[in-house]
Write a structure and sequence with these properties.
154 residues; alpha+beta; 2 domains; 6-stranded mixed β-sheet; 2 helices; 18% helix; 49% strand
Length: 154
């Protein structure tokens, strides 16, 4: 009996597998995400002037009570993107933007409270929720333990 099963497979019993695999590949390719455009820059800053960030925040101290998440989007005209703010792994805010040009600079902001120390993450996500870029900063109250780090952009 085993010889017959083995013989049937060796005579092309698996020929049916190739069209199924090809069909699955076509379906996957038809539904695969192809990213359009890119996030040229994404950073935290203490301010935005004339649609440009004034600095880059890596660690914010108690003197900072408002922080901005700035993004420079390229080739994403007509798409909707969001800034998704997370604190301690929990989403605390989502801000949607419609990209209306080939180069689109947008920002969102959060008020910081001394009770919200720790790591913050902001993500740029597309309309399907697919993450395009993530950036992290840390908020500290006691700068004697960990000093603030704010870099100039020049």
């Amino acid at each position: 009996m085993r010889a017959m099963v083995s013989r049937n497979h060796s005579k092309g019993g698996l020929r049916w597998l190739a069209p199924i695999c090809l069909g699955l590949l076509v379906l996957y390719t038809a539904h695969a995400r192809v990213p359009q455009g890119r996030v040229a820059r994404a950073l935290f800053t203490t301010g935005v002037v004339e649609r440009e960030p004034v600095d880059r925040v890596l660690v914010a101290g108690p003197d900072i009570n408002r922080i901005y998440f700035f993004t420079d989007l390229r080739g994403m005209e007509g798409q909707v993107v969001s800034h998704r703010w997370e604190y301690n792994g929990e989403v605390v805010s989502t801000v949607k933007f419609e990209v209306k040009g080939p180069r689109w600079r947008v920002y969102s902001a959060r008020e910081l409270s001394p009770a919200q120390t720790g790591k913050w993450t902001a993500m740029v996500v597309d309309a399907d929720g697919w993450p395009l870029r993530a950036v992290v900063f840390e908020y500290v109250v006691d700068v004697s333990e960990k000093p603030a780090v704010i870099l100039p952009l020049n």
